[in-house]
DNA sequence: GCTATTTGCTGACCCAGATCAAGAGTTACA
DNA sequence: TGTAACTCTTGATCTGGGTCAGCAAATAGC
């Protein structure tokens, strides 16, 4: 905002600070006092950008950090016993990746960039230590993990009970919400993942994803141009997902 | 173990302590020093048993506690917009229920007893406070939540990618492991949930669950008598689930 | 620029598992 | 102790979405 020239000169991508990060209102610094943000800032390492297809970490590697996405998108996935990829999540800016490694001290999934992506590395031992000193940081961490648990459970419901239309509609509305939260358009956005990756994530064949998207377009629920998506009829999409009538609960994946 | 008469007189179900709890080695007290267990013990309330079908908490209620199961089994579930139940998890002794409420301060699921069940109530604000003072408790909490995240992600893989045989086999082996960890037989146990609940959880129709179980029995993988299950051929069951790294997909027996 | 490879779309066909139906046990409670 | 209400099983049938195949369009590599 009101940086001196000296500060701004130092704030290259790699040295930028949480205070100046447009994501701080969504990321871990939420609800932290200025001095606390500073302390958090000091344990964070800004990494150089990952190019599309590069790994952030690999399944089985020793866990030592969680990562906040700054720009771009990541996917996490397992390799099944049959050798095929199973995507377990997509991560957008401000979201935390790697939390599932805390328990076993090993990343149980791999994380790979879907496009050019920058992340902040947060060494977990430092974060844990700092969280003892800053209760609101600890609380924030518990909240982030709790949120991940309830989101994943919603995803389980989706995978277990919903049909192809509902799955794809949920997926698109979920992305829409995530874009909106970060101040981008909720109705127009670009998919950074391929149809194949969407299908893999949703438990559908590529062809099904393709057919459903085409049909949504034909029925004027959405407008599609390659990876560009515009949600035209939010109301109908939400009905498809089965949003509860009364309360304004938004479909979460 | 070596309690005085006075102590034992006070240690009814409702007043028993973490120190004397056979589950302490699996539950939160793991890796806590004796004096720390005492402090944890003081914030925990033992509740009177829930009868089968009673709620521990309901979706939408204010979140204030997590619960450790002491005996019996719970299920957690959502009610979908269509009004049907969607089970998101089963909870056995030593497991923690309610963690998904931390984020929103509201339980996003309901929890109901599948049989007579006793729990320890752990008011979360106290737990959080105590965790600031006892680093190993905080670490344990992070681990439990992280574990839940990776377990749920495994469940997502199961729901999205596996067929009926693989789902049922995974489910049975998963239960088996949980019994084993608590010192019970890994091969013989009693299902506290109905076929319908298993199907609901696994994204299968009741009829399919029933048929798969019958077929497993016919092929001498398991022996079934109502809710009593005996796993006869662990090796074949594990092959079915896909633990084997090398060999390809197992043909249906 | 030109080929090679990946990504997306669509049609034809098939099958795993859902749904429907019906009977036999089991459990609950009045 | 009887009966209503679940729960489980099994068979018959149907169908959503998977698989296979072929082609078009977009990207990457040379």
Automatic annotation (TrEMBL), chains A, B:
GO terms for molecular function: DNA binding; DNA-binding transcription factor activity. One of its GO terms (cellular component) is cytosol. InterPro entries: cNMP-bd_dom, cNMP-bd_dom_sf, Env_Response_Regulators, HTH_CRP, RmlC-like_jellyroll, Tscrpt_reg_HTH_Crp-type_CS, WH-like_DNA-bd_sf, WH_DNA-bd_sf. Pfam families: cNMP_binding, HTH_Crp_2. The keyword Transcription applies. PROSITE patterns: CNMP_BINDING_3, HTH_CRP_1, HTH_CRP_2. Residues 28-98 form the Cyclic nucleotide-binding domain. Residues 162-235 form the HTH crp-type domain. Keywords: DNA-binding, Transcription, Transcription regulation. It comes from the Bacteria. This is Crp/Fnr family transcriptional regulator. It comes from Marinomonas rhizomae.
């Amino acid at each position: 905002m009101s940086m001196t020239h000296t500060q701004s000169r130092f704030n290259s991508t790699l040295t930028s600070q949480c205070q100046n990060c447009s994501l701080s209102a969504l990321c871990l610094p939420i609800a932290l006092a200025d001095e606390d943000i500073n302390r958090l800032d000091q344990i964070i390492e800004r990494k150089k950008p990952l190019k599309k297809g590069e790994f952030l970490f690999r399944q089985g590697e020793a866990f030592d950090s969680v990562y906040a996405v700054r720009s771009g998108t990541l996917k996490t996935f397992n390799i099944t016993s049959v050798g095929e990829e199973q995507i377990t999540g997509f991560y957008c800016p401000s979201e935390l990746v790697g939390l599932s490694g805390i328990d076993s001290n090993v990343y149980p999934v791999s994380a790979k960039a879907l496009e050019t992506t920058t992340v902040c590395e947060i060494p977990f031992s430092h974060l844990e230590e700092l969280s003892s000193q800053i209760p609101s940081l600890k609380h924030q961490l518990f909240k982030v993990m709790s949120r991940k648990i309830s989101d994943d459970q919603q995803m389980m419901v989706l995978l277990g009970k919903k049909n192809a239309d509902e799955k794809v509609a949920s997926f698109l509305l979920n992305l829409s919400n995530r874009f909106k939260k970060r101040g981008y358009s909720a109705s127009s956005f670009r998919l950074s993942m391929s149809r194949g990756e969407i299908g893999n994530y949703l438990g559908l064949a590529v062809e099904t994803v393709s057919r459903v998207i085409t049909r949504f377009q034909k029925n004027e629920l959405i407008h599609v141009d390659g990876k560009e998506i515009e949600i035209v009829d939010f109301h109908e999409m939400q009905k498809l997902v089965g949003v509860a009538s009364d309360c304004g609960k938004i479909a979460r994946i």
